[in-house]
Amino acid sequence: MSIIDTIWRLDPFYPVVDSVDWVERLVKQGTKLVQLRIKDRDDETVMPEIRAALTVCRAYGADLVVNDYWRAAIAAGADFLHLGQGDLDTADLVAIRAAGLKLGISTHDHAELARALACDPDYVALGPIYPTTLKVMPFVPQGLERIGEWKKLIGDLPLVAIGGITLERAPACLAAGADVIAMVSDVVRHPDPDARTQAWLAATRPASVRT
Ligand SMILES: Cc1ncc(COP(=O)(O)OP(=O)(O)O)c(N)n1
Ligand SMILES: Cc1nc(C(=O)O)sc1CCOP(=O)(O)O
Ligand SMILES: [Mg+2]
């Protein structure tokens, strides 16, 4: 697949969730790109959840990104995988590519970006753009200028911005050069996640496909 096709396929609204229930809830509402991020489990126990999430995403024409569990992603026949720098230490990139998986990689500084680009990823993620409460990170918030810098460095490769991004902050991230906005709390911890999802979809869907 060419980079143009990859850009075309990646939806700008990219929620990250920790269960099949959340995946289903989001894709039923029209979400087209979602990450299943389940932490601290093994391949065997996440496998049924990955398979179930794939089934529901395919039924609704959405792309599922599997976080971390590359062996399970291959075994389940997933289409997308997300790996961080620590994950790269043990991942078999040849096997991942041989399985036809598209790959997104996290970056937080220039050394990580160089390592990510050497893996020939299908997207690069930059974070945390703003302070995040989801996990403790040894990086200061990157800010908007860094998004522009990353976009210049990676060119046509899709840039995913993540970390502390709210619907209100999203326009500035997109204007700075992000192609896709990933988020957890702004959807999952919102008092009305369904209404928030609809608001994100309305704000990020291209005018040509709005109803
Ligand atoms: C889109 C996106 N960006 C970054 C991450 C973080 O990946 P990683 O650094 O491996 O940390 P964990 O999410 O695995 O805790 C991500 N998952 N998705
Ligand atoms: C999972 C994750 N990875 C990040 C990175 O910078 O690599 S920030 C992050 C958490 C994103 O959650 P929220 O939208 O609630 O801030
Ligand atoms: Mg990871």
From TrEMBL:
Required co-factors: Mg(2+)
Membrane-spanning segments: none
EC number: 2.5.1.3
NCBIfam families: PRK00043.1-5, thiE
Cofactor descriptive note: Binds 1 Mg(2+) ion per subunit.
Organism this protein belongs to: Labrys neptuniae
Residues given in the record as Mg(2+) binding sites: 68, 87
Protein name, entry field: Thiamine-phosphate synthase
Top-level taxonomy: Bacteria, Pseudomonadati, Pseudomonadota, Alphaproteobacteria, Hyphomicrobiales
